[in-house]
Every structure is written in structure tokens, then in C-alpha cells.
Write a structure and sequence with these properties.
Subunit structure: Binds calmodulin. Interacts with NDUFAF3.
Protein name: NADH dehydrogenase [ubiquinone] 1 alpha subcomplex assembly factor 4
InterPro entries: NDUFAF4
Pfam family, one: UPF0240
Family: Belongs to the NDUFAF4 family.
Number of strands: 2
Strand content: under 5%
Length: about 140
């Protein structure tokens, strides 16, 4: 805050200016080395993929998924198959069919259950529709 310090900071020193003019910095990047592969590109590490098993639902989903994964339509299909025919579509068969780990298939079958649509008989529908609502007084 003192005026002497401010004046000293703002004052130009000719001696330092002449020394600064003599300083010259030159910077250069090292030359870039390009490895010649002979025009052959090595493939990058890609995950192995498999074709999906969708049948007539093919247009609804992706065509290829990485091994060890399943698409949404495949998941619903295998869950429904297991629900309808659990003796045929066992966890082992699903794991082999879809390239999955058995532990993951067991978890999938345990924790995910497809919805079931239930249709009521017509007699029940009549009973429900013929019910007269209470009148408020």
C-alpha cells in the first residue's frame, strides 16, 4: 500500500530492459518418427461378437452382440422359453446357446420373471360390469 513500493514496481529499469532484449529463446519440437508398417494395419483388439438368435423378431433388435452379452429381445425370449418349458430350457442350455456364464444365467432366471397375461372368463366380466355403483346422497 505504500507509494514508494508502487513507484518501484511501476518504474522501468533500462539496464534490465537491455539485458532482456539480448535474451532469445528458440523452441523446436523433436522430429516425428513414423513407423512404416508397409501399409498393413494391425487390427485393434475387438471383442468377439456373435449373431443374435431372434427368428421372426429380427427387425426389432441389433444383429450382433458381444459374446457374454445378450440383447433385450433375446433376454425376453429366453426368459419366456424358460418359463414355458423349464425342463428343456435349463440354465445350462441357455448359457451354452447364448454364450453366457452359468452364474449370470442363474441370476437372470432368479431375479427376472416375464409378465403373465391372464384373461378372465366372460361370466366374471359380466359380474363386474353389471355392478351398480352406489349413489351418494
Amino acid at each position: 500500500d505504500s507509494p514508494e513500493i508502487k513507484e518501484e514496481v511501476l518504474r522501468k529499469d533500462d539496464r534490465f530492459l537491455t539485458l532482456l532484449k539480448d535474451v532469445y529463446v528458440e523452441s523446436r519440437d523433436p522430429p516425428v518418427r513414423v513407423k512404416d508398417g508397409g501399409g498393413v494395419h494391425l487390427p485393434s483388439k475387438q471383442k468377439e461378437k456373435r449373431l443374435t438368435k431372434l427368428g421372426h423378431l429380427e427387425g426389432l433388435d441389433v444383429n450382433k452382440v458381444p459374446k457374454g452379452k445378450i440383447s433385450l429381445v433375446e433376454a425376453l425370449t429366453l426368459l419366456n422359453n424358460h418359463k414355458l418349458q423349464p425342463q428343456i430350457w435349463t440354465a445350462e442350455k441357455i448359457a451354452a446357446e447364448y454364450s453366457l456364464e452359468l452364474k449370470e444365467v442363474n441370476s437372470l432366471l432368479e431375479f427376472f420373471i416375464p409378465f403373465a397375461v391372464q384373461e378372465f372368463p366372460k361370466e366374471t366380466k359380466k359380474a363386474i360390469t353389471s355392478h351398480k355403483p352406489k349413489k351418494l346422497t
